[in-house]
Amino acid sequence: MNGTIRRMTLSKPAVLAAAAAVLLCSVGLAADVTVTISTTIEGGLAAGASNTGTSSKVVTKISGARSRTDLDMGDQVMTTIIDTESNQMHVLRPAEKTALLFPFDTVATGQPAAPAIDTEVKATGRTRDIEGVPCTEFTVRMKMDMAAMAAGAGSSLPPEASALLKDVFLRVEGSTWVAKDAPGATDYAAFQKAAARAAMAALSRGSASSGRASPLPGGLERLFTGFPEATGIPYLTELTTAVEGTGQFVALLQGMAQMKIVSKVTGVSTDAVAADTFTVPEGYTVVKQ
């Protein structure tokens, strides 16, 4: 199953979701910087037939108001280029030689987002060095109403299927070790806000064109903008997911959704980044969304 997932061609909705997801690892810095983050996911749907889990590498390059994020999933690489001065995001699709262009100066709005997600981020007071960089620990807890999330995504589930998700919640818990004084950490929040705005614009345009509700529940944008309580570069994040609630559907979902996610910074470089890194490659067709 794992190999099959990796070889699948991403659909447009999947591209938008993945583009939003890679923004989690984008780091906003005033000077040129390249940050590499490796992520592993174990258990649940990620385990696959081989029970080996999945892994990916995200390389984010920043120069001023521009960023390029390459998500390497093994058999596929997806690239997102953002320019916060021109308010544009390009999502490159190498297999088709196309670049989806999402302007985000004005955001198309779909139907109202789903109810907010309960989120709690707290400093523990603990510190440690990771890769020689002083980091501070924060606990992260999120609780998501799965029925509300399905409704917010414009789900076409029949009423009887939606009823199975009533009183079922997805809980995310863990910690993140943040470097507050790392180079460029003070610019992190500002750039993340712009990057989040780009992702929300792309996803909102998709939902507006389909007449469906916004695909992101209210409160989930904090994953893109970063937690204001934990401003800085997240050198190590360890999260577990689990399903809780009542009903016959809970037992099935528990096995599918119980996962461990570990993301770690494996490299930081302050070498200059070439200007053409942030341009659409020659031979690509730009498709405005």
Describe the SSE topology.
Layout lengths: L1 H6 L4 H11 L10 E10 L11 E10 L2 E7 L4 E7 L4 E6 L4 E6 L14 E13 L2 E13 H7 L6 H5 L4 E12 L8 H23 L11 H4 L7 E13 L3 H9 L1 E11 L15 E4 L1
Parallel strand pairs: 6-12
Antiparallel strand pairs: 1-2, 1-11, 2-3, 3-4, 4-5, 5-6, 7-8, 8-9, 9-10, 10-11
Helix pairs in contact: 2-5
What does it look like?
With 289 residues, the chain is an alpha+beta fold. The protein has one domain. It is 22% helix and 39% strand. It contains 7 helices and 12 strands. Strands 7-8-9-10-11-1-2-3-4-5-6-12 form a 12-stranded mixed sheet. The longest helix is centred in the last third of the chain and has 23 residues. 35% of the residues are buried. The N terminus is likely disordered.
List keywords for this structure.
twelve-stranded mixed β-sheet; alpha+beta; 22% helix; 289 residues; disordered N terminus
| Average pLDDT metric | 75
Overall number of structural domains: 1
According to DSSP, the number of beta strands is 12
Order of the strands making up the biggest sheet: 7-8-9-10-11-1-2-3-4-5-6-12
In short:
Helices cover 22% and strands 39% of the residues.
